[in-house]
Amino acid sequence: MNPPILPAFRLPSLRNFSAVPVILALLGILVVWSSWYTVPSDSVAIVQRFGKFQAEVQPGLHFKIPLGVDVATILPVKRQLKQEFGFYTEGATNVDQYSDDPTVESPMVTGDLNVALVEWVVQYRIAEPTNYLFAVREPGITLRNASESVMREVVGDRTVDEVLTIGRQEIEAEALVKLQQLATRYLMGVSIDQVQLKNINPPHPVQESFNEVNQAQQEKEKLINEARRDYNKVIPLAEGEKDQRIREAEGYRLKRVNEAAGDVARFNAVFTEYQKAPDITQRRLYLETMQAILPGIQNKIVVDEGMKNLLPLLNLNTSQKPPAEAAP
C-alpha cells in the first residue's frame, strides 16, 4: 500500500518584504544610544570632534554627536592612580599600573657598583587632562619610563648600604622632586603625589650573607643603644652628685669665711675694750673662760695660793670612794 501524498509546503515569498525599515530602525537605535554618555563624579571627559579637541566636560549626563563624530575620553582626574615597579598587584584597574615583566625593572646598580633589587610605587593624579591626552604619546608608558630612569639615577648616586638601610627616605624625597620636574618638563599633565619604596633586597645569591651582616648591624645598634641608655642613666646621676658636692663646698666656704670674719670682728671689739680698760677686760675674759671650762669637769678642787704641803693632803694613792666598814 502506497503512503498518502502530502501537499507540498512552500515558504512565503520575500519579494514583497523590504529590509529598509528594519535597517533604519536599528540605525536610529544606534544613533540614540551613542548620543548620550555619562561622566562619573571623580572624572572629566575630553570631547574630540573629528579628532580635534572640542571641550572639557564636567561630571554628569551629556549629549554628543553620534556615529563617531564626537569622541568622549573619560579621565579620572580626582582619583589617585599608581604605578608599581618590580612587582604587581592582582586585580589592577589601571592599565599602566604594572609592566609585562616586572623583574626587568627591579635590578639596579648602586654607586659602588653593587646590585640591589628595588621595588617602588609611584602615586600620581591627572592634573591637566588636555596635556595628558595630547602633549605626550602614551602618557602612562612615558611616566613609567621616566620613573624608572629617575629611580636608577637616584640609586646610582648612593652606596648599596645606603640603599638597603638608612637612605630610604632620602631616595624617596629626591626621586619625588626629580620625577615631578621631569613630568613638568615633558608636559605630561600629571602631579606626582608620592614615591614610596617597598622592598629593597640584595640579589638572591648573596641575600643570606647580607642578612647575616644586617643582623650583626642590628646587634651593633642594640649594644650602642644599651650603652647610651646606661650613659644617660649614670652620667646625670654623677653630674647631680658633682653639683651637690660643689654646692656643699661653696656653703662650707661661705660658713668658714663668715665665721672667720665674725671672729675677727669680735677680737677687734674685745681688743678695743681691752685698750680702754686692760684689767677689767682681762678679768672678764678669765671669768668667761672658766665659765666655759668648769661645767665639763666633774670633780673640782679649789686650792688656796698660800697653802703648803699639798701632796700629803691629797692622798693621791687612795680611791675617791669612802672606805668600807670593818667587819665585826
UniProtKB/TrEMBL annotation:
Pfam families linked to this entry: Band_7
Coiled coil (UniProt feature): 206-233
Membrane disposition: Single-pass membrane protein
Molecular function (Gene Ontology), one example: peptidase activity
Localisation: Membrane
Residue ranges annotated for the Band domain, each copy included: 34-214
GO terms (BP aspect): proteolysis
Transmembrane segments: 20-39
Principal location listed in the UniProt entry: membrane
Annotated keywords: Coiled coil, Hydrolase, Membrane, Protease, Transmembrane, Transmembrane helix
NCBIfam families: hflK
Record note on quaternary structure: HflC and HflK may interact to form a multimeric complex.
Similarity comment: Belongs to the band 7/mec-2 family. HflK subfamily.
Function recorded in the entry: HflC and HflK could encode or regulate a protease.
Protein name, UniProt field: Protein HflK
